[in-house]
Amino acid sequence: MIRIVLAEDQALLRGALAALLAMEADIEVVAAAADGEAAWRDLQRTSPDLLVTDIEMPGLTGLELAQRIQRHGLATKVVIVTTFARAGYLRRALDAGVHGYLLKDAPIERLAEALRRVHAGGRAIDPQLALEAWSEADPLNERERQVLRLAGEGQAAADIAAALGLSHGTVRNYLSEAIGKLGVGNRIEAYRLARQKGWL
User: Fold this and answer.
1) What does each C-alpha distance from 20 to 16, 23, 24 come to in angstroms?
2) In 3D, which of 70, 5, 15, 12 has the Cα closest to residue 36?
3) How far apart are the C-alpha atoms of 128 and 119, rounded to whole Å?
4) Pure H helices in 58-186
5) Is residue 119 pLDDT above 70, yes or no?
6) Residues with Cβ within 8 Å of residue 112, at least 6 apart in sequence
7) What is the pLDDT of residue 131?
């Protein structure tokens, strides 16, 4: 039996996925969480074989969950099921140790088969996305990404500095570096482009 924790913030989709997966004879959904922090608690409580998660969720994102699983050396493998068909997201997911990356418009049979493949030690990556993932490298480092994300959410440089424990000048330098690397005119354009590419 493949034991799964499901993490999806949209209640209707979470319920539908849980019901459809429960129809598979060899799959058991042991917990279904509405946000990343709840999913993390469920992971620790149930020690499932797989975590099936969306990327964008309240609390912790799917990528942050994958990174935390990797850091703590948990045996749970991660499969991301998302609407984000962006190569940048896939590259970051693979860096975080994710074993599967599928799009939400895939049929349920493909998801079940992907879960079996990952459980058996393989990988399951949307083929078109896999081709695109290596065509354009993410130019941002982790700190530039953090600063740009907060700037894009409307925070001033002083607030970002306080939140990340950096000096005001260092935050400005990171923003300037990110803007330069992305070849745009300002932080808002940098944020939009990085989001569009899946780098944030």
Assistant:
1) 6, 5, 7
2) 5
3) 22
4) 62-71, 87-95, 108-119, 127-133, 142-152, 157-164, 168-182
5) yes
6) 21, 24, 27
7) 65
Report the phi/psi class of residue 183: left, alpha or beta, with left for phi > 0 and alpha for psi in -120 to 50.
Answer: left
What is the C-alpha to C-alpha distance for residues 4 and 21, in angstroms, rounded to an integer?
A: 9
Q: What is the pLDDT of residue 92?
A: 83
Closest CA to 68 of 76, 56, 80: 76
- Residue 197 · residue 86 · CB < 8 Å: yes
Return d(Cα 14, Cα 42) in angstroms, integer. 15
Angle of helix 142-152 relative to helix 168-182, nearest 10 degrees? 100
Return the minimum-mean-pLDDT range out of 46-55, 70-79, 88-97.
Answer: 88-97
pLDDT tens per residue, range 149-170: 999 989 999 999 999 999 999 9
- For residue 115, the model assigns a pLDDT of 96
| 87: number of Cβ within 10 Å | 22
CA–CA separation, 9 and 103 (whole Å): 16
Are β-strands 100-103 and 77-82 bridged in parallel, bridged antiparallel, or unpaired? parallel
What is the rounded distance in angstroms from the CA atom of residue 148 to the CA atom of residue 121? 36
Q: Which of 61, 59, 10, 65 is nearest to 32 (CA)?
A: 10
